[in-house]
Design brief:
about 250 residues; alpha/beta; Rossmann fold; 7 strands; globular; binds D-gluconic acid
Length: about 250
């Protein structure tokens, strides 16, 4: 059974993994045996995270690039090719949030969220798949959200992007499953992260989350690790195009 979840010998690229959910998942994949590539906009912060993982006895390096910059993405994958580093597991986690009513939202603001949260997953997924397809195996894990299936006022671009992540995952399965690639998504619920700090600190929003969530609490970033390792491992070789909500039950009830 342990072998089923063992990632030894695999390399995992986790975008947006200097902190938050991405860092938690990168740590979990490393604990399962993977060599992890820490990505972030801030190279120094990414290096600090990779160093902390190495100090904990794991294999961790940095792949610092802007997930909205196609030239940087392509250059990174070309550099990894030249180094003989194959990305076996891709976690498309990087994302931003922008809370504003649509009638006050500029098109540029909309586009920035879509570019960061959705288009990046396509571009990085395409570059990874171009290398995975000839190898006949690969794992792609796209990070969705409650907003992959539910709407909330004032987060329209994030919601549209995360809804797109769900269906992009299904499109990846449609095109790549026959070649041994499994593409799935994780839909985190309300998690205790920096991105949500303003919500956590808002007494009425906090009360709403606790009351609306069957588990009656926010989730912790480390609570995504089990699902991430599962979707990155042989345990999910016959799972494709699915989204697993790790949300305390929020999407399961009215
Ligand atoms: C919000 C939050 C949510 C969560 C998460 C839920 O403003 O409602 O930011 O979007 O971050 O995505 O799955």
């Amino acid at each position: 059974m342990a072998k089923l979840f063992d990632l030894t010998g695999r390399t995992a690229l986790v975008t947006g993994s200097s902190r938050g959910l991405g860092r938690a998942m990168a740590e979990g994949l490393a604990q399962a045996g993977a060599r992890v590539l820490i990505n972030g906009l801030d190279a120094a912060r990414a290096e600090a995270t990779a160093l902390a993982l190495r100090q904990a006895g794991h294999q961790a390096d940095v792949a610092a690039f802007d997930v909205t910059d196609e030239a940087q993405i392509v250059a990174t994958f070309n550099r990894l090719d030249a180094q003989g580093t194959a990305v076996d597991i891709l976690v498309n986690n990087a994302g931003i949030q922008l809370r504003k009513p649509m009638v006050e939202l500029s098109t540029a603001e909309w586009q920035r969220v879509i570019d960061t949260n959705l288009t990046s997953a396509f571009v990085i997924g395409r570059e990874a798949a171009r290398r995975m397809l000839p190898r006949g195996h690969g794992k792609i894990i796209n990070i969705g959200s409650l907003m992959s299936s539910l709407g909330r006022a004032t987060v329209a671009p994030y919601t549209a992007a995360k809804g797109g992540i769900k269906l992009l995952t299904q499109a990846m399965a449609a095109e790549w499953a026959a070649s041994g690639i499994q593409a799935n998504a994780i839909g985190p619920g309300y998690m205790l992260t920096e991105m949500n700090q303003a919500l956590i600190d808002n007494p009425s929003f906090n009360a709403w989350v606790v009351g609306r969530t069957p588990s009656r609490r926010w989730g912790r970033p480390d609570e995504l690790v089990g699902t991430a390792v599962y979707l990155a491992s042989a345990a999910s070789d016959y799972v494709n195009g699915q989204i697993v909500y790790v949300d305390g039950g929020m999407t399961a009830i009215l």
